[in-house]
Amino acid sequence: MTFRTAVSTLSALTLLALAGTAHAQLRSVQDLPLATAQKLAADAVSACSATGYNVSASVVDRAGLLRAFARADNAGPHTIDASRAKAFTALSTKSTTQAVLEGSQKNPAAANLKDIPGFLLLAGGVPVKAGNEVIGAIGVGGAPGGQLDEQCAQAALDGNVALLK
Tell me: the pLDDT tens digits for 101-127? Predict the structure, then answer.
C-alpha cells in the first residue's frame, strides 16, 4: 500500500466516523403546522369577540417567526405588534407572559427583560406545546387587560388540544 493510498483510506474512514457521529447527534422535532397555527389565531380572536373584545392574535413557530395572524374587524392598530411580541416573549421564555411579568416585578435582576428587542412584558402570551415540547406560542392583544388576552389565547389552545398531540 502506498502512502497516498493509506492517507486516502484513513481520510475516508475519518469522514465515515464523523458522519456517523453527526447522524447520532440529530434529533427529531415537531413543527407547528400552518393549518393549526391559523386555527389557533382565528379561535383566539373568536373567543375574545364573543365577550366583546376586539383583538389581534399572532402565532409564532419554534423559531419565533410569525406563522399565523388574525385581527378582529375593529381591533386597534397597536394590537398587531402587541400580539406578536407577546407570542415571541412566551416562546422565548417557554412560559406565559403573565408569569414572566410577575417574575420581573419580584426579581430586580430580571427588570432588564423589558429591554430585550421583541419582548413585551404584558399578559396575553402562552406557549404552544406538543406534549412537553414547546413548538410555538400564541399572543393576544387588545382586550381591556392582559389577563383577558391570556384567557382568549388559552381558550384557543384548550379548544384545539387534539391538533397539538
Answer: 999 999 988 888 889 999 999 999 999
Instruction: Give the pTM.
Output: 0.83
62-95 residue pLDDT tens: 999 999 999 999 999 999 999 999 999 999 999 9
Neighbour tally for 146: CB within 10 Å: 22
Residue environment code for 85-100, b if the CB has 16+ CB neighbours within 10 A, otherwise e: bbbbbbbbbebbbbeb
Spell out the residues 6+ positions from residue 71 whose beta carbon is closer than 8 angstroms to its own.
45, 55, 56, 57, 79, 80
Residue 142, sorted as left (phi over 0), alpha (psi -120 to 50) or beta, turns out to be: left
Q: How far apart are CA 67 and CA 122, in angstroms?
A: 21
**150 Cα distance to chain centroid:** 14
Domains of the chain: 34-164 (3.30.450.150)
What is the residue whose three cell numbers read 427583560?
113
Q: Which residue in this structure is represented by grid cell 469522514?
A: 15
Between the CA of residue 119 and those of 41, 90, 92, 93, 100, what are the distances in Å? 19, 9, 9, 10, 10
